[in-house]
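Board notes (copied after class):
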Amino acid sequence: MSLVRPVLWKKLGMAFGILSLSIWMAGCTVSNGDHRIVTIHPPIDMVKPSSLLERGKFGTSVPITPTLSLTAAHVADFSRDKVIAVHPRCDVALIEADNRDLALPPLGLVYQGDVIEVYGKSSAGNVLNASGHYYMDLMISGFKEVENCPSSITDAPVRGGMSGGGAFNSNGELVGILVGFAHPEKTTLDNGERLDLARMTIFVSINYIHAWLETKAARYGGLSPLALPVEQDIAHNEHVTEMTLLDSQP
């Protein structure tokens, strides 16, 4: 039985072979839908490589304290000199940043059916935005970046470079960090049911990393506490679908 392979933007070569690697070097990107350039948005930064050997790569980060930003761990991997802490299970990392003059977003929660706004950077430095809804949380096996952490699913489209960007609820609260996408047409639940979604964008919910985030932010000079309205336990979260293994079809 083969398992779903979500597209993680650091892994273009592995996911799509030599062709995608040459497309990446040419400056093009992979996406699962359309986006709009916006000038009014939450604080969003571009993450660039620390080494010239990785020139051409980029990602996104979201400021959360005057000195710290959140991003995807696979983005932080090519900006190692800024890394403060990497989550032990989820594809999320804290990096140092100068956010002193920014209006920092509050942290929040999201529930099934809620509207989601996603934001991230383009290669030109513009902020990209798209809208969708939050559907469920799933456990995805077979891909190390996500297999040990619940994946929150939205149909808001994303593209390369938006990895590490933010998922926000309708109140403007940061509810998750974007890490990649999977292909719904090749995906079923472990009971054989297909997901009737136009797209499957994956983000790591702030809810699942809250305790780690609050501890690290306090330890490394961020604001303390970084409080959510309610800190929920994964095993007793009544507002999300039971976490389910995904299976891909040939």
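Comment from the instructor: The chain has four helices and 14 strands. Residues 59 and 105 are 19 Å apart (CA to CA).
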